[in-house]
TrEMBL record:
Official protein name in the record: Signal recognition particle protein
Residues binding GTP, per UniProt: 103-110, 188-192, 246-249
Section covered of the full-length record: 7 to 446 of 522
EC number assigned by the record: 3.6.5.4
Subunit organization: Part of the signal recognition particle protein translocation system, which is composed of SRP and FtsY.
Family: Belongs to the GTP-binding SRP family. SRP54 subfamily.
Cellular component terms per the entry's GO annotation: signal recognition particle
Ribonucleoprotein recorded as keyword: yes
Low complexity: bias regions: 429-438
GO MF term list: 7S RNA binding; GTP binding; GTPase activity
Function: Involved in targeting and insertion of nascent membrane proteins into the cytoplasmic membrane. Binds to the hydrophobic signal sequence of the ribosome-nascent chain (RNC) as it emerges from the ribosomes. The SRP-RNC complex is then targeted to the cytoplasmic membrane where it interacts with the SRP receptor FtsY.
Entry's free-text remark on domains: Composed of three domains: the N-terminal N domain, which is responsible for interactions with the ribosome, the central G domain, which binds GTP, and the C-terminal M domain, which binds the RNA and the signal sequence of the RNC.
Lineage: Bacteria, Bacillati, Actinomycetota, Actinomycetes, Micrococcales
């Protein structure tokens, strides 16, 4: 989808005034791109119709830069189809808030249960996970593992808790939550590989039994053309209040999101972006629109980068390097900035062609910064500014003071010297090329 749209927009950007035929051919390209991305035909027609009407209107012909205006319109319409504003989770007036998860097997429900629980816990809530997938042999164990990772309680069927009957387990789970004052209940359910009447009835029965505040339909963003049929089947069979898109860390660029939202009218609440419990975020329609337009989720990126790097700081360091006055304090400052960019790996993942860089960052060790901090903080001001004065007895003192070994201190000094040398090269002759990374 994205490569094609990008080409289309490139053509547009190169032009000044737009003719009606420019607009028509652009709309045709958008239509083809969306269809190729498995967006449902009705949705595509509706979408391109709106874009065309607006593009032919005054807002484009009177615009300073008509091409940019068309891009803007496409973006706005995408955001609007994806749900406009972001919707939040409904909370029950009287706790616990009950969230039920439904979807095909492998969609990511159990993983999502853990992610939601962790996220809610981080906001001070006390979720209870309830294991109602009694179909797959390992499902209950899997949920218990996820609960433990998230640091939350789990309610699993044991003799007396209603073995074999997911509806009973759901009811008992909610009762347990009330008794133990959990303010959230997350009900994990069974799925099948394909839509099937028995599974659907089971989910519907669970829904009737516990009357959830939210029923979240969990769907793999990579599912392609089946997205619409699956979503419709679940809407008819169980009905749901919201959608969670999973596996957005893969190649899928959002075609499914577009169709599901448009066909079911239900909002997308969350996006799941990996196997780890932290790989999860509230869904941002505007960001998904950018992703579909292949802007590399630039908003998220800019936000994260702004949080991570202080421009002034970077300029000061560059000046120091040029003057050959780079100290261990500067070195430490740089490492700390790297840490602030805790999400830097994610950030890289959002940019096309950054695989190599991401690999390197995978090896970035958080503890190393803590150790580096300890060592540098055990040095005197003079030592930090002039590491050449670090003789054997000074290194021994620093090692003792920081609780590290002399070898650790030696290695740090060595790494600092390498970094200083490398940066001097950079300051003199421009950036060294990192493989897989274009010019920044
Ligand atoms: P369920 O059958 O719906 O409960 O699905 P699971 O939670 O067991 O997930 C199925 C598989 O998909 C597991 O291997 C998960 O680790 C994986 N998975 C779940 N969510 C994501 C995601 O957002 N991204 C990726 N890459 N994998 C995911
Ligand atoms: Mg499961």
């Amino acid at each position: 989808l994205s490569a094609r749209l990008t080409d289309t927009f490139k053509n547009l950007r190169a032009k000044g005034k737009l003719s009606a035929s420019d607009i028509d051919s652009t709309v045709r390209e958008i239509r083809r791109a969306l269809l190729e991305a498995d967006v449902a035909l009705d949705v595509v027609k509706d979408f391109t119709g709106k874009v065309r009407d607006r593009a032919l209107g005054d807002e484009v012909s009177e615009a300073l830069n008509p091409a940019q205006q068309v891009v803007q319109i496409v973006n706005e319409e995408l955001v609007s189809i994806l749900g406009g504003e972001q919707r939040r989770l409904e909370f029950a007036k009287n706790p616990p808030t009950i969230i039920m998860l439904a979807g095909l097997q492998g969609a990511g429900k159990t993983t999502l249960a853990g992610k939601l629980a962790k996220w809610l816990k981080g906001q001070g809530h006390t979720p209870l996970l309830v294991a109602c997938d009694l179909q797959r042999p390992n499902a209950v164990t899997q949920l218990s593992v996820v609960a433990e990772q998230a640091g939350v309680a789990v309610f699993a069927p044991e003799p007396g808790n209603g073995v074999g009957d997911p509806v009973k387990v759901a009811k008992n789970g909610v009762a347990e939550a009330k008794a133990k004052h959990h303010d959230f209940v997350i009900v994990d359910t069974a799925g099948r590989l394909g839509v099937d009447a028995e599974m659907m009835k089971q989910a519907a029965d669970i829904r009737k039994a516990v009357n959830p505040d939210e029923v979240l339909f969990v769907i793999d963003a990579m599912i392609g053309q089946d997205a619409v049929a699956t979503a419709k089947a679940f809407q008819e069979g169980v009905d749901f209040t919201g959608v969670v898109l999973t596996k957005l860390d893969g190649d899928a660029r959002g075609g499914a999101a577009l169709s599901i939202r448009s066909v079911t009218g239900r909002p997308i609440l969350f996006a799941s972006t990996g196997e780890g419990l932290g790989d999860f975020e509230p869904f941002h329609p505007d960001r998904m629109a950018s992703r579909i337009l292949d802007l590399g989720d630039i908003l998220t990126l800019i936000e994260q980068a702004q949080g991570a790097f202080d421009e002034d700081e970077a300029r000061k360091v560059a000046e120091k390097i040029a003057k050959d006055a780079f100290t261990l304090d500067d070195f430490l400052g740089q490492m700390q900035q790297m840490r602030k960019a805790g999400s830097i790996k994610k950030m890289m993942g959002m940019l096309p062609g950054m695989g190599k860089m991401k690999e390197q960052l995978d090896n970035f060790d958080e503890r190393e910064i803590v150790h580096t901090e300890a060592i540098i903080q055990s040095m005197t001001k003079a030592e930090r500014e002039n590491p050449k004065m670090l003789n054997g007895s000074r290194r021994l003192r620093i090692a003792k003071g920081s609780g590290m070994t002399v070898t650790d201190v030696n290695q740090l000094v060595q790494r600092f010297e390498q970094a200083a040398k490398m940066m001097k090269t950079v300051a003199r002759g421009g950036m060294p090329q990192i493989p897989g990374m274009g010019p920044m």
